[in-house]
Automatic annotation (TrEMBL):
It comes from Streptomyces harbinensis. Zn(2+) 2 binds at C162, C165, C188, C191. This is Chaperone protein DnaJ. Belongs to the DnaJ family. Its cofactor is Zn(2+). The gene is dnaJ.
Length: 381
């Protein structure tokens, strides 16, 4: 063996791959023919090129370390093939990196990629949101093709190394520029950068490794979800190309409008309309709550716009314990049609109360109405 490849690169025998690569890059930058066209330098450049080709390849390095010559006849790639030759391709990208700092990911890209996340909307009733539920949902997502197990090749066939790029996934080209010869790499047009081609694609998935299919999933919906809450189901999204790992599935909650209750946060609001007499005398009104029928106690002398909170009858807090309240807003109805007897009775009542010609009380602006709305919103009386 004539050449000491370690000496050529100026590294120790126990140098790491990283040290070997660094040494090579430094020398390549110094000795590249574009920089230094002197024939002696070019000879030296070929040497470091060959040395790096051996020492950067674990198999060749091992062979060399054991006393063999991986660059000799039958030892693999021919030594000193130089620019444009097929043999040295492994180094060219490193040379380019050394020159232009284009330390991008090299080599063939994988056919397998992670799938995308998917999202579906799910409509639920208020009661389901308040207490939680379990739902069956139908999802249409990409799943692994069973015919080819995600490989993309027809049964009995397999992907083959691309002969255009020899499995590298990229092809290099020498062009002339003002710098001299410049090597450029681009994804291999024959294999789209995968390094392999599938001669006979799977007929089921056309080589994609996945097919669309409909599945039924059971989703546990926690108590307290609201409009727009997203429930994440890990790994239930789209399977990736080439049978890659699936993304996640998000179930977005849509809460159906309730005929009686309006939800604000975890509180529920409703309005009960009672006659004037009931407001004055007090009454009990049955209300169908989420927990069943309850009697709402209207105290004698209740005013229109007053609200009655029913504690713990709202929606369960999603985080933490307890529930919101159910706020019953009272609206007092004034009779609009009176028969003569009713009118007579009311006139008597007015006289008894000294209200035949009431002065009334005016508030500035619309304050009365607004404050009542505000109180209703805050759930206060
Ligand atoms: Zn298939
Ligand atoms: Zn190719």
């Amino acid at each position: 063996m004539a050449t000491d490849y370690y000496a050529v690169l100026g590294v120790q025998r126990d140098a790491s791959q990283d040290e070997i690569k660094k040494a090579f890059r430094r020398l390549a930058r110094e000795l590249h023919p574009d920089v230094n066209p002197d024939p002696k330098t070019q000879e030296r450049f070929k040497e470091i090129n060959t040395a790096y080709e051996v020492l950067s390849d674990p198999q060749k390095k091992q062979m060399y370390d054991l006393g063999g010559d991986p660059m000799g006849p039958g030892g693999g790639a021919g030594a000193g093939a130089g620019f444009g030759g097929a043999a040295g391709f492994g180094n060219f990208s490193d040379i380019m990196d050394a020159f232009f700092g284009t330390a991008t990911q090299r080599g063939p890209k994988s056919r397998t990629r992670r799938g995308q996340d998917a999202m579906i909307r799910l409509e639920i009733e208020l009661k389901e949101a308040a207490f939680g539920t379990t739902k069956e949902i139908q999802v249409d997502t990409a799943t692994v093709c069973n015919t080819c197990n995600g490989e993309g090749a027809a049964p009995g066939t397999s992907a083959q190394t691309c002969d255009m790029c020899r499995g590298r996934g990229e092809v290099s080209q020498v062009t002339r520029s003002f710098l001299g010869q410049v090597m450029t790499s681009r994804p291999c047009p024959q294999c789209q950068g995968f390094g392999t081609v599938v001669p006979t694609p799977c007929p089921e998935c056309a080589g994609d490794g996945r097919v669309r299919s409909r599945r039924t999933l059971t989703v546990k919906i926690p108590a307290g979800v609201d409009n727009g809450t997203r429930i994440q189901l890990a790994g239930e999204g789209e399977v990736g190309p080439g049978g890659g790992p699936p993304g996640d599935l998000y179930v977005e909650i849509r809460e159906k409008a309730h005929p009686v209750f309006q939800r604000r946060g975890d509180d529920l609001h409703c309005t009960v309309t009672i006659p004037m007499t009931a407001a004055a005398l007090g009454t009990k009104v049955p209300l169908e709550t989420l927990d069943g029928t309850e009697e709402v106690d209207i105290r004698p002398g209740t005013q229109s716009g007053q609200s009655i909170p029913l504690h713990g009858r709202g929606v369960t807090h999603l985080r933490g314990n307890g529930r919101g309240e159910l706020v019953v807003h009272v609206e007092v109805q004034t009779p609009s049609k009176l028969d003569p007897e009713q009118e007579e009775l009311l006139r008597r009542l007015a006289k008894l109360r000294g209200e035949e010609r009431p002065l009334g009380q005016f508030q500035p602006g619309q304050q009365g109405l607004f404050s009542r709305l505000k109180d209703a919103f805050n759930g206060r009386t």
